[in-house]
């Protein structure tokens, strides 16, 4: 008589979690693969064999798959789920781990519509990045889930995410990026932007959220919603394009920049200031048009960064220039009006930090 | 639902005259249930289009339904309504669960069900009324009030909403309250106030003031799954109907059990077990058994409360119904009387610490203690009556049942009864297997039962005339006698195994008695010592038969209308009873005379008749009485009741017998004498309950307080194979079946000269339409002087009080110890022994000190000369005086005072036999033919394994037999221990048959075996005492040497000598060598790890359920048992593997359950508890430290169980007196076990306690029966996920209910039923699980300091 096992399960009152196995599960590693990966370590114990390891891993996998349903709604389970008895710390670890993402994946879905069609494209991504397709799908679904819940929600997006998904602040910020860039349909997919990492864009996005949205306390508060008034105000920056003012601006900047820059770069500033200031002001003035807002990144790269790359500016040069550029303008009459001044500051804060962030040296680009 | 009620099974309890019943009806008291539905959350989306749900709630209680408003478009609805009030009957409160059903409102289509919540209101019933009111009116003592008994005040919280098709679907917040008018009506139908505990021991923090006895109930009802309606309704509807039914049944059984307990004057039922037998087409049987007790909180039990510190008796007696007034008066007289009678029987040796009130003792007492004529009551009186009581019970019952209907509708009754009889005959209903204690020798007895049946049939044809029946009886019996009685048959069977098969095949009904309890080598001893052996054998052979003899003759006597006979008989029996009772040492002398007559009587019909048991008489009387006055009997009345009733009315059987005899003119000197004897007690006798108590002297507890158990007789067990038939079954039949079994168990216990059966359990397994019922327990002699607490039946053992002085040493010791009031010491109340040591209070410590570990526990309770079976008894290694068996099997936890050497470990055997796939009666025959062999194999294997482990006893032994279509599987699991007083087992030796050519491999195996033995002894610290003790050593060696001779001659398998003839035998030997448990694990199936040294239980870690299911592929090469063994071993290994991170840990209370759901499928469920162990050496807290030191002190004075090991291994350090059990783990500190249990969540444990915590309050007993079905198994991810998820959800629901009651843990968790029906091709699966336990509120030790 022989037995061929058809079922072997192990259920405990307190849910057993094994970090290693959970990690593998989250990464989408199949149970059988997991056995192979863990074989070496686990078999140190005498009297055990692969079969036991497999049975254990399968137990865990089953538990996690049962848990997964709850993980989709983490905030609720954290307080009062009854199905699993898991220590709060461990539970929170499980959640963080489940919502952890690969930059590559999220970089890929940034700005994309999180539709089923795009979900199918994950196969390519998986192939490209070597990340398990299951993991890609989980991340995609996580993003979509968070997006769906938070998108329409008033209030600060990061806070909303933390409240609803019990995520760490860092993690929540990343998801906020996805939500923000996604809901406002920023174009991040252009080939020219491919060199940018998720973190770069996330940085920019948060800068935008911090400065350009309705952040004031109140019922209107919502950082996925642009401060339209502010954006319209930016139209008035057109005054800066006036020839005299432009020149004034130029000289102010030059005096500020000169001591800090290499001769070669300073030369470039002197020669091309007009181009640069027009590019920056052009972007700023167009922001009230949502189409232009969507192409913000590509505009920044094409109109600003590419000339600077061509002139071999370093990031340090850039930040010196931008600082000088911003503050010089404030010294001019044109921006004497408090409101405009403020708008300029808000605008340039974002643009500066974004441009600096997006600026990559050749090496970094590669 | 049609619930047919069965009322038979025990006397007296449910047999009030009709008028009373009517009264009851009228007396039902209303209660008010208030329910508030607050909110829901996480509800599923029911309206796909809108992604939302319009939820409302239906609240159903009994037949009233309320509804809430619809909360539109929300998955987290808020109702916040007013209270819904229900006014219900008090019985309904107990029977009916509150049903809360969440619905989704649909405008156009039918509303969809989201799911349901069942709330059992029973836990609320305890607190809702003043506890004083819950005590039956008859119990006058207000002292019985126990605040600790109070349950939860409200039942409120978030409950998972469960749907049988989808599992948990959100939660609902509900608050339930109950307002009850206290019902003091004596005749009420409800049993509010009786608190139920699954805990098979005295709940922590409480004391058992009285143990009233065994209570049981049984309900047979139709299974909704098999109703015609099932064909047209949805699976969900059926499942819900079933679930509801299970809840109702559980409530109703509980209520009825409670009612019985109430009538006994108890206020709680402990060791309560609820089982459902799903018999398929023939319905569902709900069975509840438990032990009725009067519990008081420790505070109440403290000195101040009892009026008389030294004599709690009067107070104690107070609560007893009907006898309260008398009790005080009686006490003095009774004590005096008992003294005198006792002195007559047994001159108490001063050195005897404990006088075991053996059954006979109680009988002897009975005259003295007015309370108790019971011993003489039906069948209970003499220990010899083992067989007859059972056989006669059957016959009597059958007869009665046949006759009963007759008076009213004879025409109908006859055919029916005939049919029933024919059926029973066909099936060999009487086929049963009784095995006693440690059974090794198969003995056969021709069982009369079958004949009885035949007889019945004949008799049934003429139901009206009473006289023919006895005559027929006589005929049948005598023929039986001829076959059964000759010792030669018996001896022959003993000697040659070959006898087994022919006999078994010949006689369809065979009594298979594995007698040689205690000693595996009994055979040897038989053969070796010729003279004594023959004596033994004779006695042995006679034993089983002689009981039958008396029974045979008494009927004839009755038939002849010679009533004087019975009376004589009775007196005789009572005498014999009295004599047999004396304590062991006396019994040698005292019982001998009494017993001797029996053997001699056996052959002779006349003498035999003398020993006819009372129960038989009772039956007879009953029968006669019936024939006389059957008109008065209502047909609905159940025979048993009748029987009992007749006895009830006469206070006791004995008196009745007398009166009976005298009326018939046979009043003789005997009669007079007897009358005289009983005249005194009579006034005090409490008729009803006392008889009841004696009917089944069973206790369902596993754990007993120190000093409660005087001696172990051994394990007793009875099985019977029954054929279920649809529609033809009377509900009573189940009761009768169990009754038979119980009688048999009782008689086995009696045969071992034991007065109670401890750790009593009833199990059943069903295959198709064949049902195997098993009852098992441990025959033991219980200490009656254990004053207040431990009267088994109040009256019965009241005399113990009087005998209190006898255990003078004992009590002296206790008094010395307790510097406090004497009374404190006297409170040897049943304490919660299982409590973790650290948490023990001073008082409990004091208690445990009172009874030093002693060896008498192991001494045989019966006289060796007339021992019921050949026993290889040896002088006690501790006191050198008493005799101890060489092996002891019990079904209870090891008592605290037992002297243990080394540590305990799990011992398990699996036996698997193939079986033809037959149907109906063929199947029954097949099974019953196979069972004896199965059991023989199991027991011999377990004895052999024990030897390999170097242990000599098994505790908490559970033997379960499962029958499938093609397989029969038996699993015996226990915890092996080395009891110091008992001899070390010899190392098994292998002997090959002469022609064996594989000598080489044999020696190899022998070597392995020996190595294993040595290893085991080392690991578990078992040092055979012959190493220390030359005397006992030589003795055991002697026996060792004796064995071979007999072995070869008889060809019998023996524990010491294992004959290896072929590969199969070799396999069996290989099975004996178990793989070792990995380091860091201690594995037992008891509540504690006996003899664990150097470590203590720090925390509870995990309760786990492991389910393994496999397809069976028949294959010739290996034996069934071997491959099963291999897989179970693998399962265990995998368990260790899964828990590897928790070492050092103990796996406690491992339960193995085998099911054979399909012809080629096997399923094994393992339930257990992992607890964290920590080194004692490093006390974390001051209190712990002082505790340890105190412990040490006590250890110096008394040998506590763990301390015994020091004999072998001197203390290494002061604090850890025993060597650390695993050197490899000494570096692991106890704080390695903080989480995962921590303070969060709900602890669920199968143990009676929560390790590392203190039980503050018991909140109620919860039982759940859930069904889960799915039509999309594949989508879920297979059966594994299905079951895994289900168990998980179930635990979640249980936890939610515990929380709702205000608790944070559940103890005594059990999972009884686990059935998975799969239809993979249809993508379907259905799973049924029954779980339950006691909800408690605990405080963790950390919180206290």
Present the secondary structure layout.
The complex is a heterodimer of chains A (366) and B (1345).
Chain A: E1 2-12, H1 19-26, H2 31-42, H3 50-71, H4 74-80, H5 88-99, H6 103-109, H7 116-120, H8 122-129, H9 133-151, H10 157-165, H11 169-183, H12 198-212, E2 213-214, E3 222-226, H13 228-234, H14 243-257, H15 263-286, H16 290-294, H17 296-310, H18 315-330, H19 338-358, H20 362-365
Antiparallel strand pairs in A: 2-3
Chain B: E1 3-5, H1 18-26, E2 30-41, E3 55-61, E4 64-67, E5 84-89, H2 90-95, E6 98-104, E7 112-119, H3 131-134, E8 155-163, E9 167-180, E10 195-196, E11 206-221, H4 235-264, E12 268-278, E13 284-297, H5 298-301, H6 313-317, H7 324-345, H8 359-368, H9 386-403, H10 405-408, H11 410-427, E14 432-436, E15 442-446, H12 448-461, H13 468-484, H14 487-495, H15 500-506, E16 510-514, H16 522-528, H17 530-560, H18 564-580, H19 584-595, H20 597-601, H21 605-610, H22 614-629, H23 639-649, H24 653-663, H25 669-679, H26 687-695, E17 709-723, H27 731-751, E18 756-767, E19 770-782, H28 798-802, H29 808-817, H30 822-826, H31 842-850, E20 874-875, E21 883-884, E22 888-889, E23 900-914, H32 920-949, E24 953-963, E25 967-979, E26 989-992, H33 999-1019, H34 1030-1050, E27 1057-1060, H35 1063-1072, E28 1081-1083, E29 1095-1113, H36 1120-1138, E30 1145-1158, E31 1161-1175, H37 1182-1197, H38 1205-1208, E32 1243-1244, E33 1253-1270, H39 1273-1276, H40 1278-1300, E34 1305-1319, E35 1324-1340, H41 1341-1344
Parallel strand pairs in B: 10-12, 14-16, 22-24, 26-27, 28-30, 32-34
Antiparallel strand pairs in B: 1-11, 2-5, 2-9, 3-4, 3-6, 6-7, 8-9, 11-13, 12-13, 14-17, 15-16, 17-19, 18-19, 20-21, 23-25, 24-25, 29-31, 30-31, 33-35, 34-35
Helix pairs in contact in B: 7-8, 8-18, 9-12, 9-17, 9-22, 9-27, 11-12, 12-13, 13-17, 14-17, 16-17, 16-34, 18-19, 18-24, 18-25, 22-23, 22-24, 24-25, 29-31
